[in-house]
């Protein structure tokens, strides 16, 4: 960036790529027509503020052994599903980004967090740049009893917000949403890369400086990233995505990044009339309504973080009327399904070339873990042969290009989950049979290849 006082720079609104010239296509993320001119004031001085408040005194490095290991303090949100995704509760002074499609329930979730925190005696400030006080009140009425001490502020000016947080010193702050916030120092429109970056920077300083936990709501673009900048993701401590089918009632909160816990944990919620309710047993929820004795349907097991989830895989294979068969995958990777069908064709001699095939993960859940390969393969073959798989059977395993069934991690937990839900047989990779303990009450069948698995249908 040039040194001048007022420089204009072009930013890609998708990935934050910075350029001195306008460009038709972003070299970073290859999006077309995403560059927007933004004015950047006095770039030179920023970032030169001393790290410690006291001028001239350089902070000393610590020895690792000198760092005290007090037990990390966590604020429980009273919602087990959320606590799990956060890694055991809210860390004081943390900055958390909650992303998701508009209307998925981000504001509802965070208002419920406010409710729980407030009832626990914490001071909470909810800042909305999208809704009026009345609208928030209406939502709060739906959710239920509030203690009455929750502080609301409808504001989008960053300076005002900064001062308010300084004055009130709350324990937790909700910013709904980052795309509406603007700083007067940045001339670009709210929601643009430089505004979002500036605002997040300010919230980061506030969170660390005052030890407040801040939750930022971020809307997601069509492409599935938080609108505008990836920059936002690496600035915050924790990134949670709220996803789910808008037509189905359940919602999944997925941890994508977490500096205080493991990622890839999920929390499952159900959107009800009176807000979000926690779903403690997602497998039961996912398998609700599974048809009995139907061909093309099988239960598979996927690990989401530390939790096994059973889900129904459905396939429909039928003769194709046109030259090019139609293939579709809902809830899983389309290319992966094509690959598995090619494996079936070549390694197991199943003639799928003249068939349309549709694969669907029931309930609208999205899973890309390879452990559901075996389930997909068996569902396709079951539909192709028009022969149902036993209803009390669960299958999991990764399928390789030679048609081999490869081992998957945490077989024990998956089998345990199947047992808990009353399944009687597990079809698993033979290599995973080793080291299994305490699995009486459920039959395990090891398979080495897709042929072995198909012979069981
Ligand atoms: P909202 O939290 O406003 O979504 P976001 O902040 O992510 O844009 O949720 C909006 C949807 O949730 C809306 O379609 C109505 C539905 N909803 C319920 O079904 N029950 C409820 O109790 C509430 C508050 C919302
Ligand atoms: Mg909202």
How does the SSE layout of this entry go?
Layout (H helix, E strand, L loop, with lengths): L5 E7 L5 E2 L15 E7 L38 H7 L8 E6 L5 H14 L4 E5 L4 H11 L7 E4 L3 H11 L3 E5 L16 H18 L2 E7 L11 H5 L2 E6 L6 E9 L7 E7 L2 E4 L3 H6 L9 E8 L2 E13 L7 E4 L3 H14 L7 E7 L11 H13 L7 E3 L2 E2 L5 E2 L4 H10 L4 E5 L13 E5 L2 H5 L3
Parallel strand pairs: 4-8, 4-9, 5-6, 5-7, 7-8, 13-17, 15-16, 17-20, 20-21
Antiparallel strand pairs: 1-2, 1-3, 9-10, 10-11, 11-12, 13-14, 14-16, 18-19
Helix pairs in contact: 4-5, 8-9
Bound molecules: thymidine-5'-diphosphate and magnesium ion.
Short description:
The chain has helices at residues 80-86, 106-119, 133-143, 158-168, 193-210, 231-235, 282-287, 334-347, 373-385, 411-420, 450-454; strands at 6-12, 18-19, 35-41, 95-100, 124-128, 151-154, 172-176, 213-219, 238-243, 250-258, 266-272, 275-278, 297-304, 307-319, 327-330, 355-361, 393-395, 398-399, 405-406, 425-429, 443-447.
Keywords:
3 domains, alpha/beta, Rossmann fold, binds thymidine-5'-diphosphate, 9-stranded mixed beta sheet, binds magnesium ion, Ribosomal Protein S5, domain 2, 457 residues, 7-stranded mixed beta sheet
């Amino acid at each position: 960036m040039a040194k001048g006082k007022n420089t204009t720079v072009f930013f890609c609104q998708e990935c934050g790529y910075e350029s001195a010239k306008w460009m038709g296509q972003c070299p970073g993320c290859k999006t077309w027509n995403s560059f927007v001119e933004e004015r950047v004031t006095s770039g030179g001085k920023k970032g030169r503020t001393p790290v410690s408040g006291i001028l001239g005194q350089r902070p000393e490095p610590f020895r690792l052994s000198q760092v005290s290991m007090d037990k990390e303090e966590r604020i429980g949100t009273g919602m087990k599903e959320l606590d799990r995704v956060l890694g055991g509760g809210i860390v004081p002074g943390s900055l958390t980004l909650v992303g998701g499609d508009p209307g998925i329930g981000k504001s509802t979730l965070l208002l419920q967090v406010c409710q729980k925190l407030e009832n626990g005696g914490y001071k909470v400030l909810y800042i909305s740049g999208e809704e009026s006080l009345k609208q928030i009140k209406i939502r709060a009425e739906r959710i239920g009893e509030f203690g009455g001490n929750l502080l609301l502020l409808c504001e989008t000016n960053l300076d005002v917000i900064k001062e308010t947080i300084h004055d009130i010193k709350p324990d937790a702050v909700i910013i709904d949403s980052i795309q509406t916030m603007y700083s007067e120092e940045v001339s670009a429109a709210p929601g643009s890369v430089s505004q979002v970056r500036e605002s997040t920077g300010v919230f980061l300083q506030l969170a660390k400086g005052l030890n407040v936990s801040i939750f930022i709501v971020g809307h997601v673009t069509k492409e599935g990233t938080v609108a505008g900048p990836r920059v936002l993701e690496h600035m915050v401590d924790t990134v949670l995505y709220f996803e789910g089918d808008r037509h189905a009632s359940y919602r999944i909160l997925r941890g994508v990044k977490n500096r205080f816990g493991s990622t890839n944990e999920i929390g499952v919620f159900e959107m009800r009339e009176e807000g979000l309710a926690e779903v403690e047993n997602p497998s039961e929820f996912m398998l609700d309504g599974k048809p009995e004795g139907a061909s093309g349907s099988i239960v598979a097991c996927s690990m989401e973080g530390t939790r096994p989830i059973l889900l129904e895989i459905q396939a429909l294979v039928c003769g194709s009327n046109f030259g090019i068969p139609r293939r579709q995958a809902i809830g899983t990777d389309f290319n992966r399904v094509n690959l598995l069908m090619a494996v079936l064709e070549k390694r197991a001699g199943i003639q799928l070339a003249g068939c349309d095939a549709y694969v669907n993960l029931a309930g609208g859940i999205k899973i890309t873990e390879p452990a559901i390969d075996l389930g997909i393969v068996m569902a396709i073959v079951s539909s192709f042969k028009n022969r149902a798989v036993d209803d009390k059977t669960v299958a999991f395993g990764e399928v390789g290009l030679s048609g081999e069934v490869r081992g998957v991690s945490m077989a024990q937990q998956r089998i345990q989950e199947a047992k808990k839900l009353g399944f009687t047989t597990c079809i698993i990779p033979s290599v995973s049979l080793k080291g299994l303990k305490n699995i009486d009450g459920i039959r395990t069948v090891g398979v080495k290849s897709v042929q072995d698995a198909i012979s069981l249908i």
